[in-house]
Design brief:
Elements: H1 29-40, H2 43-56, H3 61-73, H4 77-90, H5 95-107, H6 111-124, H7 129-142, H8 145-158, H9 163-175, H10 179-192, H11 197-209, H12 213-226, H13 231-243, H14 247-260, H15 265-277, H16 281-294, H17 299-311, H18 315-328, H19 333-345, H20 349-362, H21 367-374, H22 383-394, H23 400-416, H24 420-437, H25 442-456, H26 459-464, E1 475-480, H27 486-494, E2 499-501, H28 507-513, H29 515-519, H30 534-551, E3 557-560, H31 569-575, E4 580-585, H32 588-596, H33 610-630, E5 635-639, H34 640-645, H35 647-657, H36 704-710
Parallel strand pairs: 1-3, 1-4, 2-3, 4-5
């Protein structure tokens, strides 16, 4: 998962500090009384006493210092500066005077003068606590983290029970990526001051960054109970939830942060990136564009947008965003890859190849670019290059995303070389990496939903809501398991002059996710479907039709080939009783293996483990049997094998089912020019060949876990 880590918002909770009452003990009783008055906050009394003292002892440096502190406590920094200068002019060997003046100058935003004065104090007394502390804070602001840490460490050694100094040192350690030590420092603060808000917040952040989000989450939750409107808290809480693989909760936390602070570019970026990784590309694009409006030149935002547009079938915008990024960070392999794939999706194969060639010439031997070269159908790599990709895939210093890509690419290479055992091992390694990247509980939720749907969408429910939806027959829903021929079926439809291709639209999934909120029900889908009425259904149907209208205002029919909409056929039937549903099927083993061999964009909880994949397929098949029994509208079953064996007959069935006249252009679907953004990019631009139908048999010995899942057997 290419998720951007949220920045850790560390809080020091204080400004530069002076050493109040730090004058040396005075034998004179008046000065002692003035110092006591200052400590008690009786500023007028302290000032009166000190003025009287200075009238008789004008060279009393301690009295001038105390007068400066009085002025400072009264909020008059300019006067305090003058008084401290008098103290130093009288006695320039006292480090306390320099330390106090340095803090005053920093408060006046005269950082260079303040730093020089603090260093004067430290030249006189290197262990001076307040001078080290204030200089450390300044160096942190300037980004000099290591030097700041040295100063703050000296301050803490001088005053080991000062919570502000301990907290600031913890901040410096965290900024130096020493998160475990930072967490320990914040814990020391909390032993001294259990309710120290900044230390609690900072410790939770440090634990998250140290890879212990489980320890951080209770602290975030306690802080949020006290400060529910703190956008930074929700933001960092979301980051910890991501680290703990609680992605659904993280999405909710980022949404809350944005509700509180709509101009948080970081929250929009991170939410968009998270939605992108889970396959909600349309909604992700909305948030990433907001982040871009707030931070137009932010390279990570441009990168995320490029990836999002690529996955959302907008190749032109993907190329635009990738190009804007590469102007700032030339030859970045990851974004070069996005632009390369976007060009190919647009059918601009020569241009993509030429840009890759130019990048390779500038960066010969780059493993990342070698991965892109390996994705070209015509590329043949030698053994040394294949070994280089293997080393890249094994390198744990690389990101999980790039290592995953490498393992899948190696699987493709060995499969083309007719080395099934090596190919399978590489695909398995890639899937294991991807499986560990996502929410482990998601598979259980997904399978539970499939079973729950059958209990909600009954003949009685359909009868009770008959006639409530739209009478439009414009939508063509192409559903089924991924890799079962849905892209090919859509390409055939789109080759007809009366049909526009919508691709994998997210809108129906969003309708289902938000149905509880729409109906005012506390229930999630599928239970929320029972709460719908005619008004809700017609409103939702109109919103979806507006989406199709935006795709093409003139086409008679518009396709939606989101395969996972097989889950939502009951809802679709309520919304569009006259819609056309095409169910794409393929041999289970071929489908399962093809899914396992493809590194899909987005998140498919069932796809990364063969036993889970078989189990999910079994439940999918059981749900389709349910739809055949109860769905109040017809559904055409289209077997991939039939389409390959007799393309014309199958194409005629498709068009007749959707009440479309015959057009010879559908037989030349591979010549149709349009953006294709699926794993079937290459296939749909080639004529149909039967040679690939039985390729899975070479891997039959590896499919035992899939078969066990398919048969409902444990283990």
């Amino acid at each position: 998962m290419a998720n951007n880590k949220p920045p850790t918002h560390l809080s020091m909770g204080q400004s530069f500090t002076v050493q109040s009452g730090a004058a040396p003990a005075a034998p004179h009783e008046v000065q002692a009384r003035a110092e006591a008055a200052l400590r008690a906050g009786r500023l007028a009394e302290a000032e009166r006493l000190l003025k009287g003292l200075l009238d008789s002892e004008p060279r009393n440096a301690g009295a001038w210092h105390l007068m400066g502190l009085v002025a400072l406590r009264a909020g008059n920094q300019a006067a305090a500066e003058k008084l401290l200068n008098r103290a130093i002019a009288t006695d320039n060997r006292n480090p306390d005077y320099h330390a106090t003046l340095g803090s005053i100058l920093l408060g006046l935003d005269r950082k260079e003068d303040g730093e020089a004065t603090l260093r004067n104090a430290l030249a006189l007394k290197p262990s001076h606590a307040m001078a080290n502390y204030n200089l450390g804070l300044l160096l942190l602001q300037q980004g000099h983290v290591e030097d700041a840490g040295h100063c703050l460490d000296k301050a803490v050694k001088a005053q080991p029970r000062n919570p502000d100094m301990l907290n600031a040192l913890g901040v410096a350690l965290a900024k130096a990526d020493k998160h475990q030590k930072a967490a320990q420092m914040f814990a020391r603060v909390l032993k001294l001051v259990p309710g120290h808000g900044q230390a609690r917040f900072n410790r939770a952040n440090a634990l998250t960054e140290a890879g212990e989000p489980g320890k951080a989450l209770p602290e975030y939750e306690a802080l949020l109970e006290e400060h529910p409107q703190d956008a930074d808290l929700h933001f960092n809480h979301a980051g910890a939830l991501v680290a703990a693989q609680k992605l659904a909760a993280a999405i909710k936390a980022y949404r809350t942060a944005i509700d509180i602070d709509p101009d948080s570019a970081g929250a929009h970026n991170n939410l968009g990136n998270l939605l992108k990784d889970r396959g909600f590309f349309e909604e992700a694009t909305t948030h990433l564009e907001k982040a871009r409006n707030l931070r137009p030149n932010d390279s990570p935002v441009l990168k995320n947008l490029a990836e999002c547009y690529l996955n959302n079938r907008n190749g032109v915008k993907a190329i635009e965003m990738a190009t804007a990024f590469l102007e700032r960070v030339p030859d970045n392999p990851e974004v070069l890859g996005v632009r390369f794939r976007a060009l190919r999706n647009e059918g601009r194969f020569d241009e993509a190849g030429e840009q890759l060639k130019e990048a390779w010439q500038r960066n010969p031997g780059s493993s990342e670019l070698l991965l892109l070269r390996a994705s070209l159908e015509e590329t043949v790599l030698d053994d040394a290059q294949i070994n280089q990709i293997h080393e890249f895939a094994e390198d744990e210093s690389r990101t999980v995303t790039t290592r995953t890509i490498a393992w899948f690419r190696l699987g493709d290479i060995h499969r083309k070389r007719a080395e099934p055992e090596r190919a399978f091992i590489c695909y398995d390694r890639g899937n294991r990496l991807k499986d560990h990247e996502f929410d482990g509980a998601a598979f259980g939720r997904a399978t539970e939903e499939l079973d729950a749907i059958r209990g909600v969408f009954t003949p009685e429910l359909f009868a009770s809501k008959s006639g409530m939806g739209s009478d439009s027959s414009r939508p063509i829903f192409i559903v089924g398991m991924p890799r079962s021929g849905s892209t090919l079926v859509e390409q055939i439809f789109v080759s007809h002059p009366d049909v526009a291709g919508g691709g994998e639209l997210e809108h129906m999934g969003r309708i289902a996710r938000e149905l509880g909120e729409t109906t005012g029900s506390a229930a999630d889908f599928p239970d929320s479907a029972a709460e719908t009425d005619a008004g809700v259904l017609r409103t939702l149907a109109s919103e979806y039709l507006a989406k199709l209208e935006a795709i093409s205002p003139t086409a008679r029919s518009v396709t939606d080939k989101m395969p996972g909409n097989f889950r939502l056929l009951g809802l679709i039937a309520l919304l569009y009783p006259r819609a056309h549903i095409i169910h794409c099927r393929r041999t289970p083993e071929a489908t399962g293996l093809s899914i396992f061999f493809h590194n899909f964009g987005g998140f498919h909880s069932y796809a990364y483990d063969l036993r889970k994949l078989g189990d999910y397929y079994r439940r999918y098949r059981r749900l389709m049997e349910h739809w055949r029994a109860v769905l109040p509208l017809p559904m055409l079953e289209m077997d991939y094998e039939d389409l390959v064996d007799n393309q014309e007959a199958a194409s005629r069935r498709l068009l007749e089912f959707c009440n479309l006249p015959w057009d010879d252009g559908v037989l030349r679907f591979h010549e149709t020019k349009r953006t294709v953004q699926t794993a079937s990019l290459w296939q749909v631009r080639q004529p149909l060949y039967r040679s690939g139908l039985d390729y899975w048999k070479a891997y039959e010995t590896f499919l035992e876990p899939f078969v066990r899942g398919l048969e409902g057997k444990a283990g």
